[in-house]
Amino acid sequence: MSKSWHISRRSFLKGVGASLALPYLDIMGSSSITAAATPPTRLACIFQPNGVFPKAWDVTGVGKQYELSPILRPLQGLKRELTILSNLDNIGKGHVQMTGAFLTSNKIEGAKNAVSLDQMVAQAIGKDTPFPSIILGTEPPRQGNAGRNPISFANTVSWSSETTRVSPEINPRVAFDRMFRSNSGPEAQMKAAQRKSVVDLVLDDAKNLQRKASYHDQHKIGEYLDSVRAVEVQIENILNPQKRSWQPPTQPEMIRPDAGIPQDRSTHLKLMMDLMVLSFWTDTTRVGTLMTAHGFSRQNFSFLDGVTSDHHGMSHHKFQDQAVDEYTRVSRWYIEQLAYMLERMSNIDEGNGSLLDNSTVLYGSSMKDGNGHKKENVPIILAGRGGGTLKPGGHVVCDEHTPLANLHLTLLQKYGVESDHFNHASTGTISQIG
Predict the structure, then answer these.
(1) pLDDT tens by residue, 369-378
(2) Domains delineated in the chain
(3) Which residues, 6+ apart, have CB-to-CB distance to 322 below 8 Å?
(4) Which of 53, 337, 350, 427 fits a 20 to 30 Å CA distance from 22?
């Protein structure tokens, strides 16, 4: 490959009906990483509903000399990439207000909230990508009221204005097509309708690029296309399963589920995580928010051993052993899914580090314990190094009753937003994570 032949960091693989952004390649710059070729910094905000059982979440030790708790042990292999924060307080009362405040630090009054952290960052860094941000989820809005607030307000933690909620996309195929398919023009629409693989649509362009690329880049392009195709195959197999080799002699009553929504919770959540990773890897967006479930979630977790009740029900455990055990098993399951996503990000090479190195992942719940809707000392994890702006600090113990807004202000400033407050709710920044 000639060293003088380069392509733009914003190059796409193109085909009729598809346009696929590329990951970072050597061919995008010189052999040494230049400022122009430095991968961007991403922000992922991941929300878990219904809190945790405190004694099963809280870690022991301070700083890097700490031990992961029973809930957090699935993150053992990623321990050096983590910051566990204690003593951050949320605001509001009940599931709806506290969910709404998770990224806004503002209490919903009537139908008004405030702009959320993810959307503030998207406004600052989202202009250079096809999507300023993406918001994904796994549960549709629920109806009814919780006190004076509609339960549907707990469908999202993302607000683009004080009156505008950004609802998550819960259908993986719709999310994938929206990000990676082009439906402009009759021929493109026909191709999309035929549901031909995005990888197949851009394959000719990819082969042309590989002929000009280094051996290292050829391998990277191939690995990347394999990952895109793997997500497509998962979606296709879920929505159009292969005919079984054995059919039961009697047929149950078949109730058709909502189109495109996987019934297996692990599969659904991992697909949405895969899509978020792909969106970052391709620079389709640099800000992603994932609702692992509705903020007032009553999801059934009987697929886990020893679990019989719904998540919201078990969160009101009243310190009964069975409910506490189920509550802890579900919380650990959520952390297992987080570990899966972080591992994927850590294995994607971007030239100057991994995708995880070039990202900040904020994970947490809007309440500490569902039993009493406790808003003090909410469970919060940071992962990644924010492109060099963050230093994983192990267990960071903030002063008691530090506003969660202080974390939001700290992150906001690290993404280049010049502000001395976060929605007028912060009292300062958190120096230990800088």
Answers:
(1) 999 999 999 9
(2) 28-170+261-433 (3.40.720.10)
(3) none
(4) 337
